[in-house]
Amino acid sequence: MNRISRMTLGLSLLIGLAAAPRSEAEILVPGKSGVELEAIDRAVRPQDDFYQFANGAWLDRTEIPAIYSSYSVYQQVNERVELSLQGIIENAAANPGPAGSESRMVGDIFTSWMDEATINRLGVSAIRSELSIVDGVTDRKSLAEAFARLLRIGVRGPMRFLVDQDLKNSTVHVAYAHQDGLTFPDRDFYLDTANPKFDKARAALPGYIGSMLKAAGRDEAGAAAIVELETAIARAQWDKVKNRDNEATYNPRTIAELESLAPHIEWKPLLAALGAGSADRVIVGQPDYFQALDGMIESRPLEEWKNYLAYRVMDERAANLDSTTAAIRFEFRNRTLNGQQVERERWKRGVSLVDRLVGQAVGKLYVAQYFPPEAKARMNEMVRNVMKTLDASLDGLEW
Q: Is the whole model's pTM more than 0.70, yes or no?
């Protein structure tokens, strides 16, 4: 669904100042600060609708570009930064530098992405090694290992794992296990059949899954079973409100307790394949979800799980594959689910891809070109002033 919003202008100007040398900062930052008064709709009383009062004029004069599903001042600033990144990345592609250097990494990825002819020629064969992980599943043990191996390369399955500080003991890091594995962003898309806003997305899902299965070399007729499986997963999952309860989602379990909770998940092979074989406990976010998932692993045919995982691989990778497969994903994910009418230009998607994959390298090149010492000095001064103001504010608190 299209949506339009407006962030505080002061934040966007701060971003612009931090991300530009002096010559550009003078363009990005006008000779004023604070609230953009021209955005205010003075026909609305603030006590009646403060959002409309503060942003109404801006909302009235601003159209959502077809390449976005939502739009704000942040996107306007980001477009300027994107042009700067384009120059940096294209220069790295033209002058890649020595092997292992930041410019070489950045340039090689962008060059590969822009080689659309090779991408189209390779098609789905480009991810054959990932699909072979699914093909290698022969039993529950190898299914658990496939969950883990795919998760490690960014392909989501029915569970999500991360390592983070223990919420009740910040001196140690622990493994967390949470529910996951849906195509839609929320369980309500599957379960709230009384709400018509989900009808279009639900109706489009079987066809999309079938197309991805066909592209993966599997029978597209398996789509109906995957929809049923995801609906069962959604039914077992906790809703957003319950997941906000930090106490309810903090459930430490030893490996033996995990095996008792969900014996068909094959926890030891799973954790070993994740690189967490030495873990002596896991904090489980939603214990009854994992119990329900255990029942699905026991009762549903192995081939159904393999189709599900092959689909998950395709859904995750389709945007970077041949133009036909990428277009199928765009139509469902971007247009149907999010309301984006037109695909962004290829170079823009390439810039986003490079920044996502090797953001540290891009950042280093960006800082070298667009963040001179005088800009850093100005930002440090601003931070010091903020800290001084905060100190004064805290000192004045009675509590």
A: yes
